[in-house]
Protein 1
Amino acid sequence: MIKVRELSKFYGKKPVVEKVSVNIRRGEITSFIGPNGAGKSTLLSMVSRLLDADTGEVLVDDTNVKSMKSNELSKRVSILKQSNYMNVRLTIRELVSFGRFPYSKGNLNAEDLRIVDQAIDYMNLADIQHSYLEELSGGQRQRAFIAMVIAQDTDYILLDEPLNNLDMKHSVQIMKILRRLVDDLGKTVVIVLHDINFASVYSDNIVALKNGKVVKEGPTDEIIQSDSLKEIYDMDIPIQQMNNCRICVYFNS
């Protein structure tokens, strides 16, 4: 479990995240939702220690991340940020191999290569693994970066808006793969999402932020309710039930 306790981040005197406390349970998908500027990405960055918190603490399996060596943390928590542009010419395979760096320090052994192959196969990239990143479509490129995270082989995978700039088909593919990572491999996925219907259909739990604070937290069915969504987004959002999923009809609200 990841325990976030009284976490805050200020830019000047303005709190971007303010006294946030949440529990992220193992073996589930937890989605961070909320309006733009709610603090979702900042919170995710502090959980991964990419960004230092001004107050509070983050515990990964009861160990404070501040006390963990970088190499130890990178074997337990991986993160994929929104901006994953790399100014270097790499093939998919070379990129995915970077996921093994905490273990191999660049000298891949047979086990590292096996895990790289496994991650490439998992993301259905084997037939194009020697293609360069600049040759890929947006969906292929995002799958390549997620394969790198899979190769890192951490219990906790943090993803910051991985569906940005993807069409509907590729967004669904990515979410189905993340669901499989949890259900088949026992990973724990924490994901920042803007589309509340993807959060509704694929998440086990939802943490809703607004103005840097947690306004709702709990199982998905408890959060995807019209009264809760109105509190989060300041708009009326009717809910329809389709194939055992709650779908938010916000486009004509």
Protein 2
Amino acid sequence: MPAAFAFDNIATLGLAAVVGLCVGSFLNVVIHRLPKMLERGWREQCADLAGETPADAPAYNLIVPRSQCPSCGHRIGALENIPVVSYLVLRGHCLACRAPISARYPVVELLAAFLSVAAVVRFGGLTPTALAACVFLWMLLALTLIDFDTQLLPDNLTLPLLWAGLLANVLGAAPIANLRDAVIGAIAGYLTLWLVYWLFKLIRGKEGMGYGDFKLLAALGAWLGWQMLPLIVLLSSVVGAAIGISLVVFKGRDHQTPLAFGPYLAIAGGIALFFGRSLIAIYLPA
């Protein structure tokens, strides 16, 4: 267990919250732009394979162009980009044209701050393990929303998450697992959903999930160890069923419409990070 954390250390919690807010602001950029960057790259590859010259386009990445209002093109200044505060001051509207700004932006920032504080509290303060847990949670947050929006789990995030989990174990900063369990977890995580994918395809004649799900579960195994994988799969199925039924009942969603599975895996991974050992002890008492 980590050393007892001084809950009265307001400065530590404040620092974790501020860092989380800033990271959440950057995650909003990643969530919005990364799928567009990938789509642009795919189009260029298709044009190249077809022997065509890709059309010239202005630079578009996580840095440029500067953030701007999608309605009027107003460039977002530094004072308009302060996490949460700017949204409240502007009352959720663009400074120039007063078009509404999605409430998801401050929600993501607040979620990143909450997860950062929770990791610092759970893992004993500003420790390497707490920092590793924060990185893990931030990336899961980004993957959750990207998959929810686009049904994509980009290799640009899932593979670095997997390698970061193994590296954290090598450095002794992993929240739960050791290196041996992490390597087995990465292999078992990938193969588990890979087998489910092919069994479903053989039985139903269609794909039941994407390859990104395999890689995400492999990354969760690399961070948390193979022992957590049954719990993660169980939790993701329960969460997915609850949300899916809710969407059908309350939102009128067609039950035939496919749902992204990545968000449920990510949520289950976050639950396992904080409560995995306690939950396992309930159904596998020593």
